[in-house]
Amino acid sequence: MPVTPNKLCPSANLIVVMGVSGSGKSTVAQALAEQLDYCYLDADDFHSTEAKACMAAGKPLTDEQRAPWVHNICAYLTQCAQKEQSCTLAFSGLRRSHREQLRQLPFRVVFLYLDGSQALIAERMSRRSDHFMPPSLLNSQFASMETSDNEPDVIPIDISQPPQMVLEQCLTSLP
C-alpha cells in the first residue's frame, strides 16, 4: 500500500552535510547530490554580503547575525520540498537550534557530521585560497559547534580518510 506524502511522511529527502568550515561539507554535499541526482545547495550562498564581509574580516557571526541566514535557507528548502525535490545541503550546523529548524521542514532529514581534528581541518583551510572564511576563525567554529549527542539523526563521519572513502562512508551511512 503506497504511503501518501504529507508533513509527517514527506516524499523528499534532505541530506545535511554539516561540520566546521574546512571540513569538506561543500565537496561531500556536491558529490552526494551528483551520485543521488539531488539538488545541491550550499548554505554559504544564503549569507548576506554583510555577513560574508564580517567573516572575511576575521569576525565570527553572532547568533543574531545567523538568524536571517537560517531563515532564508529554510524558506528556500520549503520551496524545494513543495516541488518534492530532494536536496543535499552543505551547512555548518553549529547550533542545535539551527539543526532543529531544518528538522521542522517537510523532508525526511538526515545529518552527516563531517568530524575531524582541528589540526587536520586547519591544514586543509591553509591550502584553500578562494573562500571568504579565513583560517583564523577555525577556533570560533569549534567553540560554536554544539554537541549532537542525543540527536539520533546525526551520523558522524570520520574525515581523516581519503575523500573517496569519506564519500563511500556517507553513502553507506544513509538510512
From TrEMBL:
<dbReference type="GO" id="GO:0019521">
    <property type="term" value="P:D-gluconate metabolic process"/>
</dbReference>
<dbReference type="InterPro" id="IPR027417">
    <property type="entry name" value="P-loop_NTPase"/>
</dbReference>
<protein>
    <recommendedName>
        <fullName>Gluconokinase</fullName>
        <ecNumber>2.7.1.12</ecNumber>
    </recommendedName>
</protein>
<comment type="similarity">
    <text>Belongs to the gluconokinase GntK/GntV family.</text>
</comment>
<keyword id="KW-0418">Kinase</keyword>
<comment type="pathway">
    <text>Carbohydrate acid metabolism.</text>
</comment>
<keyword id="KW-0547">Nucleotide-binding</keyword>
<dbReference type="InterPro" id="IPR006001">
    <property type="entry name" value="Therm_gnt_kin"/>
</dbReference>
<dbReference type="GO" id="GO:0046316">
    <property type="term" value="F:gluconokinase activity"/>
</dbReference>
<keyword id="KW-0067">ATP-binding</keyword>
<dbReference type="GO" id="GO:0005524">
    <property type="term" value="F:ATP binding"/>
</dbReference>
<keyword id="KW-0808">Transferase</keyword>
<dbReference type="GO" id="GO:0005737">
    <property type="term" value="C:cytoplasm"/>
</dbReference>
<dbReference type="Pfam" id="PF13671">
    <property type="entry name" value="AAA_33"/>
</dbReference>
<keyword id="KW-0311">Gluconate utilization</keyword>
